[in-house]
Design brief:
Mean pLDDT of chain B: 82
Number of strands of chain B: 23
Radius of gyration of chain B: 21 Å
Number of helices of chain A: 13
Distance between the termini of chain A: 27 Å
Radius of gyration of chain A: 22 Å
Number of strands of chain A: 26
Oligomer: heterodimer
Largest sheet of chain A: 14 strands, mixed
Largest sheet of chain B: 10 strands, mixed
Order of helices and strands of chain B: EEEEEHEEEEEEEEEEEEEEEEEEHHHHHH
Helix content of chain A: 10-25%
Strand content of chain A: 25-35%
Number of helices of chain B: 7
Helix content of chain B: 10-25%
Low-confidence stretches of chain A: 1-8, 464-471
Structural class of chain A: alpha/beta
Structural class of chain B: mainly beta
Shape of chain B: globular
Shape of chain A: globular
Strand content of chain B: over 45%
Chain lengths: 471, 431
């Protein structure tokens, strides 16, 4: 009995690997809180062009007049008066790990980033608190015309007009309160441009590490994949756990051109004091495709709903996600798809696990507008509850405005199926192995989509003790 | 707490147990200017075994209904009496038939404000106004059904009006089921194409009690429909089979919920319907497994056939779960007929429009056939086919509904495209 329990017990996410920190040395910090002076100071530090400074201040106005969301988990514990919105480590961004300060370099070494870069990545961006400390792209990738740089450099360089044209157009500050906050205090993040017809065979990655207690991270990722191009982008994140709240209100804007393909993978492992109020959105043109791969394991409270706008004929979106809510976590995740053109298609496949009092909510929306004739959408979500201390809610929604569409949705919630166990046992599999097999397969929808190294990392996060492992 | 205002009562109804995104405007429906002041005309067929009585005030205000507590308040303002029907212990009450006749022409029509969204982000605001503000009042009725332990009853409630009538009507049904009691509740709405109907139901089920709801929404202009079942007793069950057809500029706004607190409880909610022309429909279906309801199961499906390009369908099926040892499923299918089905039938000589009409009829027919009262079924089928008791052929044939013998198929084929035979809720009303 005990052995069976051990084989099927789902451990809490093992964060000891990530729960280390370094003392802040010679960092520059703005004051806590959110005022026009603070926003102006941030803008000065970053040498913003005039339009960006004005944009930040306008965003602050929008933030101040926009109400808090009242339909999701409580964020009462988040007090912006106690959040430091900008913390700059005492270093400049470098393209060589040797030039990165020791403690910061050690941070990323422990997280395996340099090793991953050497072995399997086309380029890496590493952000520490509010600034990028490392950014590099392989020469052969750059030779194809691929641009992978920090956003602030791009803002002042030859891509300045492109940035200006796209920045916060897909996620405007009016979208919601924390989009407005992001517009006011954003810092760091990456810009990627893939020219027409170029296929980036191995992934680019950005990793975000928030070291400072009581701070916020507001990186902005802007990716443009031009016509016929192909890119896989991976982002990861983590932070040590503190007793004070941290805030992550990043923004990801993805523009997928005609017949282009973008796969955007995320392993989110923020600490349990983090409020993760991230916004991700993709616009997909004719024949293009966006693939979201999302693993959500961290944060105290999450609002995370990657959204796809299918703007061109035949555009497609696939969303594959897994959420693991453990003790002290309230993870409200899901996705949104808007079909705005004919013959578009979307597919959503998510899994969630909740245990030890964790709360997992799957929240989705599929909107098919009148012009999206002959569009199709299929949504599937499955939830596994390990105990009765936890909660698991599914709140999908469909808004269909044309008769020429085919929409399907299914959801299931429950425990390990006794029928499935019986079936396997009738085929000669012992009961404990049968249960282990079922649980290990539950999150396989995400792990099989990740590169092997990240599937292994996800396996480490979940650390389900059983025969075999996920991925 | 809402207070009456001179020009009617402002209500927030059909609020689900959890919220979806605010920008979908599906979290609550806001009605303003609702006035009900008259009792409704009722013809009763009461079996001997059923005891009837009247109460002058809201019965069991603690019993949650699908539309919410504002309906209790509305009942209070209306002054309508509550008809109470009781079936004693260990008694089979037979079939209780209630025939509600709503009047024609009190000129009340609900106008949906084109841009108005209620401050709390609810669905578009509906304001009631009439040609004569001083005399606009609707009709309200209320029923309480009590089945004692082991009692059985079939209750058929039929809501009718002249086909082209307009008006405002409200009905509330509260149900208390004792141990092992069984209620089959059939509710058929056949109101005129100008009617706004507020239809509210709430039930409390004791151990092993069974509540089976069959609901047909076949008429009206705007229908607001709510049903809540509290499965408090172990092994109690709730099933709801809902069929609807909405056409013209009609609106159908629904909120169904099953709250599981007892162990080994089960629910099954199936909604199936057809939308035509510029119809709007919002279906909220909530299965709520509260902690302690171990061994429970809940299933919910919705199947919507969209017939015309300007329809709008919102579906929000929810499963809320605080208990590990449960199974919850929901599924929804929205859109067109399967192309393989169409191909098969076309290869047998049917025209596409006729196929759609046949399938639209089938969605209603499938639920009608579940009605456990042959008398009601015999009354209903002719009405659906256009030869009903209201004496207006347009009620049935305008829907394009085919009679069970299929004779009307030839009429539909000769009528031409499906747009001509559409308009299942006859005509459009002025907005």
């Amino acid at each position: 009995m005990r052995e069976q329990q051990e084989k099927t017990r789902v451990e809490d996410v093992d964060r000891s690997f990530y729960d280390f920190r370094y003392e802040e040395k010679d960092v520059f910090r703005v004051d806590e809180g959110l005022t026009p002076d603070i926003v102006t100071r941030i803008s000065e530090e970053k040498h913003d062009p005039d339009w960006m400074r004005a944009f930040r201040l306008k965003s602050l106005e929008i933030y101040n007049r926009t109400p808090m969301p009242d339909w999701g988990p409580s964020i009462e514990g988040l007090d912006m008066d106690n959040i430091v919105t900008y913390v700059r480590p005492n270093t400049r961004m470098s393209a060589k790990w040797e030039e990165v300060p020791e403690d910061i370099k050690n941070t990323f070494e422990r997280l395996g980033i340099p090793q991953a870069e050497r072995e399997s990545l086309a380029g890496v961006g590493a952000q520490y608190d509010s600034e990028l400390v490392y950014h590099n792209v392989r020469a052969e990738v750059a030779a194809k015309g691929v641009v992978y740089t920090d956003l602030e450099s791009a803002l002042h360089g030859s891509y300045a007009d492109m940035i200006h044209e796209h920045f916060m157009k897909l996620v405007p500050p009016t979208d919601h309160k924390f989009a407005a906050l992001h517009g006011a205090v954003w810092s760091g993040g990456s810009f990627v441009y893939v020219p027409p017809g170029v296929s980036v065979e191995i992934p680019l990655q950005s990793y975000f590490r928030l070291n400072a207690p009581g701070a916020g991270q507001f990186e902005h990722t802007l990716i443009i994949v031009d016509e016929g191009a192909n890119l896989h982008f991976i982002e990861g994140c983590s932070a040590p756990k503190y007793n004070v709240a941290n805030l992550h209100a990043g923004c990801v804007e993805l523009f997928v051109g005609k017949n282009a393909l973008l796969r955007y993978s995320t392993i989110e492992n923020w600490s349990k004091n983090m409020y993760n109020l991230n916004t991700k959105r993709a616009r997909v043109e004719t024949g293009g495709k966006i693939e979201w791969i999302s693993g959500s394991f961290g944060s105290h409270v999450s609002y995370l709903y990657p959204m796809s706008v299918l703007a061109g004929y035949g555009a497609r979106s696939e969303f594959t996600g897994v959420t693991f809510a453990g003790r002290g976590q309230n993870l409200d995740t899901g996705c949104k798809v808007v079909h705005n053109a004919p013959h578009t298609a979307s597919y959503v496949n998510t899994r969630s696990i909740s245990k030890d009092g964790g709360i997992s909510t799957f929240r989705s929306a599929v909107v098919v507008n009148a012009q999206a004739q002959d569009s199709k959408s299929s949504v599937s979500c499955q939830s596994l509850m390990i105990d009765s201390e936890s909660r698991s809610d599914t709140i999908p929604a469909m808004d269909i405005r044309t008769d020429k569409a085919d929409i399907g949705h299914e959801a299931r919630i429950g425990r390990i199926s006794d029928e499935a166990v019986f079936y396997l046992m009738s085929r000669g599999v012992p009961e404990d192995e049968a249960r282990a097999l079922i649980v290990s397969g539950f999150a396989e929808n995400v792990s099989k989509e990740l590169p092997l190294e990240y599937a292994v990392e996800m396996n480490n996060l979940i650390r389900i003790e059983m025969k075999g492992s996920i991925g | 707490m809402n207070t009456p205002v001179k020009n009617g009562y402002d209500m927030r109804i059909n609020r689900p147990l959890a919220n979806t995104y605010g920008w979908l405007h599906a979290n609550v429906t806001h009605l303003s200017g609702v006035r009900v002041g008259h009792d409704v005309s009722l013809t009763e067929e009461i079996p001997e075994q059923v005891h009837s009585g009247m109460e002058s005030a809201c019965v069991r205000p603690d019993l949650k209904t699908g539309m919410g507590s504002d309906m209790d308040v509305l009942l209070g303002y209306s002054g309508a009496s509550v008809r109470v029907y009781t079936v004693p212990r260990d008694t089979d009450g037979g079939v209780l038939r209630l025939h509600y006749a709503f009047p024609a022409g009190n000129h009340s029509s609900g106008k949906v404000s084109p841009e108005g969204i209620s401050p709390d982000g609810g669905a578009k605001q509906v304001a009631f106004s009439g040609k004569n503000q001083n005399t606009v009042e609707g009709n309200m009725g209320a029923v309480c059904v009590r089945l004692e332990d082991n009692a059985v009853l079939t209750l058929v409630s039929d809501y009718v009006s002249p086909d082209s009538a307009s008006g405002l009507a409200a009905m509330q049904t509260k149900i208390i089921l004792g141990k092992n009691a069984r209620l089959r509740l059939v509710q058929i709405q056949r109101l005129g194409n100008g009617y706004t109907f507020l239809h509210d139901t709430g039930a409390l089920c004791a151990e092993k009690a069974r509540l089976e709801v069959i609901r047909l929404i076949l008429g009206g202009h705007h229908t607001y429909d709510g049903c809540s079942a509290a499965l408090a007793g172990d092994k109690s069950t709730f099933s709801a089979d809902i069929a609807y057809r909405v056409g013209g500029d009609g609106r159908l706004d629904m909120n169904y919920e099953a709250v599981h607190t007892g162990k080994h409880t089960s629910c099954e909610i199936n909604a199936s319907g057809v939308l035509r022309e510029r119809a709007f429909k919002l279906f909220r279906g909530v299965i709520d497994f509260r902690r302690g309801c171990s061994g429970s199961e809940g299933n919910e499906t919705e199947d919507v056939l969209l017939m015309d390009e300007h329809v709008r369908n919102q579906t929000v099926p929810m499963i809320l779960c605080g208990e590990e040892d449960v199974v919850g499923n929901h599924g929804a299918s929205i859109g067109r007929l399967d192309e393989n089905l169409i191909f098969y039938l076309e290869s047998r000589g049917m025209e596409r429009n006729a196929i759609y009409e046949m399938c639209a009829h089938a969605k209603i027919d499938a639920v009608v056939r579940k009605i456990p009262d042959p008398v009601t079924v015999r009354t209903l089928f002719p009405w659906l086919c256009g030869d009903g008791e209201n004496g207006d052929e347009s009620a049935g044939s305008a829907s394009g509904e085919n009679d069970p013998t299929g004779a009307a198929l030839s009429e539909n084929k000769s009528a031409g495209g499906k747009d001509e035979s559409a308009g299942s809720v006859p005509g459009e009303t002025e907005r």
